[in-house]
Amino acid sequence: MKITKTNENKDLAIFDLDNTLLAGDSDALWGEFIAQHGHVNRSEYKRENQRFYDAYKAGTLDIHEFLRFSLKPLSQLSMAQLAHLHQQFMQQSILPLISPQARQLVQRHREQDHELLIITATNRFITAPIAKEFGIDNLLATEPEIINNQYTGQVKGVPCFQKGKVTRLNEWLQQAGHHLQNSWFYSDSHNDIPLLEQVSYPVAVDPDEKLSQYATQHGWKIMHLHSET
Fold first, then answer.
1. Catalytic residue among 16, 27, 206, 208
2. What DSSP string runs through 55-108?
3. 49 and 107 in contact (C-beta within 8 Å)?
4. Model confidence over 112-161: pLDDT tens digits?
5. What domain count does the chain have?
6. For residue 75, is it within any domain?
7. Model's pTM, two decimal places?
8. Residue 157's closest CA among 138, 137, 172?
9. Residue 226: what pLDDT?
């Protein structure tokens, strides 16, 4: 007879989303998508989106400045408009970025009865349907503020970025009754080193140059879901 583990003794598998489970960045792609559909000034938005993305890769991103920029368009559209746009976005931009290897990685942990969690700096509006596509119920994401069923363009609480991911995870562990004993975290980015250092088995997935060097120095596993080398 199979014994199902309780929350208190389940091992935890944590996944970053952008450039980890996805072969691309959903936040940057959402910006491109709404620009293509005329909801923001295309040239101006593309320029600013690229500037923030370059800062993210360099580790110099001002997360609050970026969130003021990225959440503003949500405040200018109704929930119904946003839901319709996101359905198109999933089909056009996201599903092609989910590799069989990424789905298999999640499934391996699921078959071992591990608790699954996605943790991402990208906001919940963008990422909740993506987590659902992977069949993962637990999602820690940057939370956009909603008042009277309308996004305000402001962030709610601690952004889920760099050390903020550790803060948000620790809060969730307490509330959900989980622990980091025998835990995994998969990420591509040096921005996630603070959280990678907290788990039992840190895994660098198609890592950026800084994370690749750090992982090699510390003997962390390096794996490839989206590239051959």
1. 16
2. HHHHT---HHHHHHHHHHHHHTS-HHHHHHHHHHHIIIIIGGG--HHHHHHHHH
3. no
4. 999 999 999 999 999 999 999 999 999 999 999 999 999 999 999 999 99
5. 1
6. yes
7. 0.92
8. 172
9. 86
CB neighbours (10 Å) of residue 104?
10
- Whether residue 56 lies inside any domain: the answer is yes
Active-site hit among 18, 27, 188, 192: 18
Q: Which regions in the chain score pLDDT beneath 50? A: 1-4, 229
Question: Is 67:131 a contact under the CB 8 Å cutoff?
Answer: no
Q: What is the overall mean pLDDT for the chain?
A: 93
Angle at CA of residue 26, ends 216 and 84, nearest 5°: 160
Query: Is 229 within the bounds of a domain?
Result: no
pLDDT of 56 reads: 82
Cα angle at 213 between 212 and 217, to 5 degrees?
Answer: 115
Sheet holding 201-205, edge to edge: 150-156, 138-147, 115-123, 12-15, 184-187, 201-205, 221-223
Indicate which CATH number applies to the domain containing 94: 3.40.50.1000
Q: Which domain range does residue 82 map to?
A: 7-223
> CB of 181 within 8 A of CB of 198?
no
Is 16 part of the annotated catalytic residue set? yes
CB contact set of 102 (below 8 Å; sequence gap of 6+): 21, 22, 23, 225, 226
Distance between CA 26 and CA 21 in Å, rounded?
11
137 is catalytic: no
Q: How far is CA 140 from CA 4, 32, 36, 100, 118, in A?
A: 24, 24, 28, 23, 6
